[in-house]
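DATA SHEET
Item: assembly model
Revision: 1
Owner: S.N.
Input lines:
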Amino acid sequence: MDHITLLVAVVIVTALAFDFTNGFHDTANAMATSIATGALRPRIAVLISGVLNIAGAFLSTEVARTISGGIVDDALVTPAMIFAGLVGAILWNLATWLAGLPSSSSHALFGGLIGAVWVGAGSKGVHFEQVVGKVLLPAVVSPVVAGVAACAATYLAYLLSARAREDRVTKGFRIGQIASASLVSLAHGTNDAQKTMGVITLTLISAGALGHDAGPPVWVIGSAGLAIGLGTYLGGWRIIRTMGKGLTEIQSPQGFAAETASTAVILTSAHLGFALSTTQVASGSILGAGLGRRLAEVRWGVAGRMALAWLITLPFAALVGGLAASVVKHGGNIGTVVVALVALALALGVVVISRRNPVHADNVNDDHEVTLRSQTPTGIGSAV
Amino acid sequence: MHIDWSALARVAAVSLGVTVAVVVVFTLGVLGLSRAADRRTGPATTLARAQAGLCFLACAVVVGYGIYLIVPRLH
């Protein structure tokens, strides 16, 4: 392991940190509606999701040989740029988590890398036409497809079950939800843990520690799976609340329809080679399920804020990534340490602010809003 | 710039079809169970149970296919 320099070690740790934020950012995609409808108890739900994420990481052997699927020129990418890009992605993930906004971890990673490569290697390092075709277009299309599918399925489910006893219908769909939510988790584990493995593997290859075309070593697969699983288990309760309660009041038939639509869209598009955001697909499904039940209230304000977060995720992560890249580029090893320390300080700051009004397993279903200030003064005491 | 519209259309059509089919079949299964619980005995109950069993079996097959798609080693 002579090839592992300080920078490579820092990149690996940063990549695992990103994987961790990815995990707790995306728990909501699979589990938010199951938690909201009571199909699964909150702690059980995140445990299942975490275990399936780890399992998913080991199940798939399809290696992400390119970190970005051709969005940036991999030949020009250096470990320093990967580090800067990861910092941008992590900070954006933490900021949106604080606000309880389900933004896309994939877009944050792409954005961070685009910004870092642009600053580090110039605009020729970024393939803009690929950005449009592989990121922007699926980002617009996939939530709409998932939403339409969930809406139609929800409408039919309520139409057909209108004459049956409601408690039996609710119970039946709750059981179905356990299966559908688990499938979303498994698909998520195979997709997202792969991204981190790809990043670490590419870093090791560029540092000469691994041969070209090498697959990820077992310790990379294990640590990436563990990081995302741990993040998932700790649960992004703030985002779970927004997706499970904030968009619309979800009942179990809607939850089942939404999760089925998410799974269908994720699996068919992965099969045909489209990279898409699990987060956006799941949000589209939930919105569609809300519209499919007549009289169900959809909070368009929340939906609008989410859409805005999607729009600015890529450029903002790119901005932070670019900024970090310029510091690393001009500051060398000292610059890297400075960026790492500043990122750590900002991350701690976010965690401290979140403590003011914490959302956790016990209160996730109590409210539909995520605020930064505590509404009940007694909440502060119990948070510490 | 090349955009694969036909692949995109296929994703949309397959997703919509699969989602609606699974949810409708599952709903029929839940309805079968509910009807079986309403009447304790008789041929109608057996029929309702059979309907539920067939529907859930069909859903399980789709779930199995989903897992097959997720795990590349099975291809």
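QC remark: The two ends of chain A are 42 Å apart (CA to CA).
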